[in-house]
UniProtKB/TrEMBL annotation:
The family this protein is said to belong to: Belongs to the peptidase M16 family.
Protein name from the UniProt record: Insulinase family protein
Keyword Hydrolase in annotation: yes
Protein species of origin: Anaeromyxobacter oryzae
Domain Peptidase M16 C-terminal: 205-365, 679-838
Length: 927
């Protein structure tokens, strides 16, 4: 059984384990959520929801228009998405010299947008002092959604949208497959049409189409404004009235915007025939879906319960289907709820081991759904262990999990979800309504929901089979592609005032975390964050790097899977909490999340997880894990990533990867030795973040739970720093017929503990902005992303984009030239100021949630950063100079970059070699 699938099955087995002992304190506890809310409908029809949350030092603004891709006219699919893109190119009526996007960037806002079937939503996050400015920009978008947008703007965005479509269809096939499934489930309905359009429909869009669509649907009576901030709700409503002005109005709209998405037609027998599609995927995939009521039915909690119950029941079916053998049907699977206004979907997706098992797996999914209907969903094993109360116990666990998730959501109110709830129910207070809905709908086992909606004869199915040639023909890049020299950046450079930059970034206060080292060597950090009743416990263990002689590649994964199943998972489930394990190259982390009222249970479960590491399942899972690794070796995406890492960290454990042959040599003794040696307190840091002070009682609880964890006797093996690549290395991974070339440029950087973090982040920000403008203005890409890949002893700056194949070599050269220019000469003061402000903006909101603070403290432990690292950053950012940014660029491995290109090798290799690049070709097996 595979790693991720085994985790899914063990999640259901955890339910079994918790029945063994009655622990009365293992019940979900939660304190009231501190917030106030206000709601107003102005005469124009604009609805405004305000959440007053005084504990946070930020605002969020969401504007949700009740019109999405389901409003696209037939033949104009993608129009709603195009309007979303174009609205950022609009010029505010008071300032025609800059786009709304540039105006949002100036004060350091974090912003984005999304087009859904039923709405188009825009959101902005910033410091409270800038709330008026954010509202003014959204008011400008509402008044003139496409003000100042030109035909050139449309031409550029059309090319970007086509590039985005192609990138998603090839590098994110899951999104495309879900669209195919929706087309089958909503035949002859707007939900069944491609929400992002097709290249043909996008190319056919005109500026008049966009203006007509926006003027009809971007109207006050069709908009919901959701605001959270620490300011008084009454003051915020007054500010909205001032800023939105005529959009507030003094009379009702003459012609209200009516909802136009109809209910889907009844399901016909011919709609249920299985659909088979060919796609450039590595493994065959099965999708099974059932239509469920839409938002207006107000049955979301019952739908969420049913989706999770289906997950558990299907996992049990897979276990029983093996009949005691090592037979494998599924590599991985998941179940999701797709909520929509007119009707939703419960969707099961399974990656198959063999294509010939598709029909069998579909039948297992339908059988699992039938058992939910038959009120016997846990007959597959849990019922025998839990008795007749099994379904009610599962319902309680799901209910409490949803309630805790709701607590966590309050830290960052999801304006899109709040707007959708208001549209569907007329209830403005989503936070309270959602909690009430969960409690009321999950008092009892909601099997009637499955009985009505998850019927065998109502299931839609899709089978996706691998076919690397099943891609559209390649389109040439637009003629407008420039020689990668964008127009001047017309966004005003932020002021050079160091105090303003320092205030924007804001010191997170993590240096104040209380610190102790227990007698067994365990380092403990306790921090208070906010006033929400949430807690997160992270146990970070620094392990010996995987991939060297001491720890063969693949052993840590096998060891953790073989040890799964301790009681910690069950106890967490009993209180609606979650427990997850993640594994890095040289660390592993166990995370327990729940309410702070249950903090003691989180601590005890984490301690039990640490102490109870032993080989339980090696004989049952080792063969399956070996086969899974073998299948991953044949996966093109996996081969590409491994080729990049191997070239980036030559001859070093960071570049190693497990092989089926290597896993075959591992034995149970290897697993036991690794668990015994590595998961020890002297190698670990415990991070506890909640709304509680580090009181004597809390310290006593920590020492009580973790003091008995015995110290190890094997020191952590030292690891040398990885060598730089000897020279520039270009790796070409062949994807025959691909319509896009995925380009990844990786430059080695000093490790986190030894580099100027602010300067490195600034050069990354400058590169990202400049290269994104080049690629978007050229119309060959939907943009570029840059991230920093950190290990304890080495790091890399990695830029990624997808472009038209015939400009791949030019794109690589542009990225390399931009990096070289940074190292050769300092940025202008204006560019440096802009980069500095981008870094401050990105830094600002990383730490103001429980999860954000816990992540930062755990990251510092893994990377061996000083205790004041995060709190020192605002001052470091504020004093950034062009020279420091240049020094950071010079510290990159300029001239020794590793370039990965994934695409059609037949067309790409001649182009790359003609541009002077020495190319190494790699197939799916990494050779």
């Amino acid at each position: 059984m595979t790693r991720r699938l085994r985790a899914a099955v063990l999640a259901s087995v955890a339910v079994v384990s918790i029945s063994c002992a009655a622990r009365p304190r293992y019940v979900r506890k939660g304190d009231p959520i501190p917030y106030k809310g206000s709601f107003a409908t102005f005469p124009s029809g604009l609805q405004v929801v305000v959440y007053e949350v005084p504990q946070v030092d930020r605002f969020s603004v969401t504007v949700s228009y009740g019109a999405g891709s389901a409003e696209d006219p037939s033949g104009k699919e993608g129009l709603a998405h195009a309007v979303e893109h174009l609205s950022y190119r609009a010029r505010p009526y008071w300032s025609r010299d800059a786009r709304i996007e540039d105006k949002l960037a100036e004060p350091g806002f974090v912003f984005d947008a999304a087009t859904y079937p039923d709405s188009t939503d825009y959101w902005v996050v910033g410091r409270p002092r800038d709330l008026r400015r954010a509202l003014a920009l959204e008011a400008a978008r509402l008044r003139e959604p496409l003000g100042g947008v030109t035909e050139d703007d449309l031409a550029t965005e059309r090319d970007v949208l086509v590039s985005e479509y192609r990138e998603r269809s090839e590098t994110d096939p899951r999104r495309t497959q879900l669209a195919w499934l929706q087309a089958a489930a909503f035949r002859d309905h707007p939900y069944g049409r491609p929400s992002a359009g097709t290249p043909a429909s996008i190319r056919g869009l005109t500026l008049e189409d966009a203006r007509r669509w926006a003027s009809r649907l971007y109207r006050p009576e069709n908009a919901i404004l959701v605001i959270t901030s620490p300011r008084k709700a009454s003051d915020v409503l007054g500010l909205v009235a001032q800023v939105f002005g005529d959009a507030i109005g003094d009379r009702a709209p003459a012609v209200p915007v009516a909802r136009r998405v109809p209910a889907p037609p009844p399901i016909r027998a011919e709609d249920l025939a299985p659909v088979t599609r060919l796609a450039p995927v590595a493994r065959p995939v099965v999708w099974v879906a059932w239509r469920v009521p839409g938002d207006g039915a107000q049955q979301h909690a019952r739908a969420e319960y049913t989706a999770l119950a289906l997950h558990v029941a299907f996992a049990g079916k897979l276990v029983l289907s093996a009949r005691g053998t090592l037979e494998e049907l599924v590599d991985d699977f998941d179940v999701q709820l797709v909520p929509l206004a007119a009707a939703g979907l419960i969707v099961l997706r399974a990656e198959l081991v063999r294509a010939e098992d598709a029909e069998r797996v579909i039948d297992l999914a339908k059988s699992a759904a039938f058992e939910l209907r038959a009120q016997d969903e846990f007959r597959t094993g849990s019922r025998r262990a839990l008795g007749n109360d099994s379904r009610l116990l599962i319902t309680t666990i799901v209910r409490d999990t949803l309630l805790v998730d709701g607590y966590r959501a309050v830290e960052r109110v999801d304006g899109s979800t709040a707007a959708r709830h208001l549209r569907a129910t007329g209830d403005a207070d989503y936070l309270a309504a959602h909690q009430h809905e969960i409690v009321e709908q999950l008092k009892d086992v909601p099997t009637d929901y499955a009985a009505e909606h998850l019927r065998r004869e109502q299931a839609f199915s899709l089978v996706v089979l691998p076919d690397p040639t099943a891609v559209p023909p390649v389109e040439p890049a637009p003629d407008r592609v420039a020689e990668h020299d964008p127009a001047p950046d017309d966004a005003a450079a932020p002021g050079a005032d160091a105090d303003a930059v320092r205030a924007t970034a804001g010191a997170p206060g993590l240096v104040a975390a209380a610190r102790r080292v227990l007698p067994n060597g365990l380092t403990v950090l306790v921090a208070r964050r906010g006033a929400f009743p949430l807690a997160e416990v992270r146990l970070v263990v620094r392990t010996t790097a995987e991939g060297g002689a001491a720890v063969p590649a693949g052993l840590p994964v096998l060891a953790l899977e073989a040890s799964s199943g301790g009681f910690a998972w069950g106890d967490l489930a009993r209180i609606g909490a979650s427990g997850t394990t993640s594994l890095g190259r040289e660390s592993l982390t166990f995370v327990a999340r729940g309410t702070s009222a249950n903090l003691d249970v989180l601590l005890e479960s984490t301690a039990e997880w640490a102490r109870d590491q032993r080989d339980r399942w090696f004989d049952q899972i080792s063969d399956g894990y070996e086969r899974w690794v073998g299948r991953r070796e044949a996966d093109l995406d996996v081969a590409a990533r491994r080729a990049l890492e191997r070239a980036l960290y030559p001859g070093h454990p960071y570049g190693a990867a497990p092989t089926a042959e290597g896993v075959h040599r591992l034995r149970s003794g290897d697993v036991s030795r690794w668990l015994s040696a590595e998961i020890r307190p002297e190698r670990a840091t415990l991070v506890v973040v909640s709304d509680q002070e580090p009181s004597p009682e809390l310290w006593a609880a920590i020492e009580d739970h973790f003091g008995g964890w015995s110290r190890g006797d094997r020191p952590r093996a030292a690891l040398e720093a990885p060598p730089l690549p000897a020279a520039r290395h270009v790796v070409l991974v062949d994807r025959p017929g691909a319509t896009q070339a995925v380009v990844v440029a990786a430059l080695r950087a000093p490790p986190a503990a030894g580099r100027d973090a602010a300067a490195t982040n600034a050069l990354a920000a400058w590169l990202a902005r400049r290269l994104d403008r080049i690629l978007r203005e050229g119309g060959v890409s939907s943009g570029l992303s840059i991230r920093i890949d950190d290990h304890e002893r080495g790091a890399a700056l990695i830029a990624r984009t997808a472009v038209a194949p015939d400009v791949a070599a030019r794109t690589i050269r542009t990225i390399l030239d931009a990096a070289r220019a940074l190292a050769d000469a300092p940025l202008s003061p204006a560019d440096a100021a802009r980069a500095r402000f981008q870094v401050a903006r990105a830094f600002a909101f990383r730490f103001d949630t429980v999860d954000g603070a816990a992540t930062a403290l755990a990251t510092a432990a893994v990377l061996d950063l000083p205790s004041d690292h995060w709190d020192a950053q605002p001052a470091s950012i504020a004093t950034l100079s062009p020279e420091r940014i240049q020094e950071a660029a010079a510290a990159l491995g300029i001239g020794r970059e590793v370039i990965l290109v994934v695409g059609d090798a037949a067309s790409l290799r001649p182009q790359l070699e003609a541009a002077g690049f020495a190319v190494e070709c790699v197939n799916s097996r990494g050779r």
